[in-house]
What does this fold into?
Amino acid sequence: MATQTVYPATHIIVGTKAQFIKMAPIARLLEERGWPYRVLDLGQHGSITPGIVRDFGLQPDQIHVIPWDSTVASYGQALRWAGALVARIASPRKRLTRDLLMRPAGHALIHGDTLSTLFGLHLARRLGLRVGLVEAGLSSGNCLDPFPEEMIRRHVEKRADFLFAPDHASADCLKERGLKGKVINTEYNTGRDALLLIASLHAEKTRSVPTFRTVLTLHRAETISHMGRLCSIMNHVIGLAPNIGPIRFYLHEPTRRALVRGRLMKQLQDSEHFQLCPLGSYPEFTGDLVRAKYILTDGGSIQEEASYINKRCLILRRRTERGHGLGETAMLASMNIESDLQFLLDDERTANRDSQWVATLKAPARILQALYPAGSVTTPSALDTAALGHD
It folds into this structure.
């Protein structure tokens, strides 16, 4: 009698908007293959993430690890959210596996370098799952900058069983450190497939004529938690604005609060060079990136997305862990108006390539191949023994 193939259940553990977006192509491929998976939502961006599932047309088995339907936007909320998660992860293991584990159990996937990455690692361990870190190996070279992201990434990389690096440089960096996890080069970041999937699913949102020239985002803790740094960046952007405006400034709630504290909000509201916008849906934001001429950001993911769509991107940070576009379409801000304008306006090589976009899902395929090699698992009992026997 032939042995029936039983597909393992992948547990995708995510909490932030960016994590949902970059893990969506993996979920998409799992659905295309008919393989079971479960999304364990940690709720760091609880009010934002439900829309992302709809935007990608996904139908996951989704569980909220804690009852949290708002987005963490202050240090007080972060402490309450983290405390609730710690209590949940520390609850009796039998209850935790009963409530959260899908059987037959395969592996867990986590992403990036956020607090949700850290909690996702330890939740997976409590569930007895082997863990794969997606977007591993990106490093600034300074364990305290950006803080705490760099420290979280290094902590998780030491403990993950699979390290999915998005390029050769990241893979080599991981191998040089002699980590225990198996290093797999996925050749590119899953964020590329996410952007291209959204561009194809919501093409109508990229075609309208823009009323702006530049998209601006600021959200990193290293920016908005240090008022001197935030004021310096905003004064620099205000100096650039007459030459690259109108600027559509997408305001994360923590950013809005920081601007109010720094008494910068009224100046921006009164300026003809800025359009202040709340966070929109991912398709709307992607459409704005496509239509923009310039992108200003302190975010690594947006730096990366700008390189995919060949946009001039000024990175408002001291250093970046990503090489996407650097020396070509991206540059770390010099904080000198003349030199930064020279970079932005020298865009002869920039061309819009959106008509040629195709999401290949090759990076998600490499991830699943590493987790579940052909013929490696065929019975429910083998899957559960492999997963639940791991500590």
In short: The mean pLDDT is 90. The longest helix spans residues 227-244.
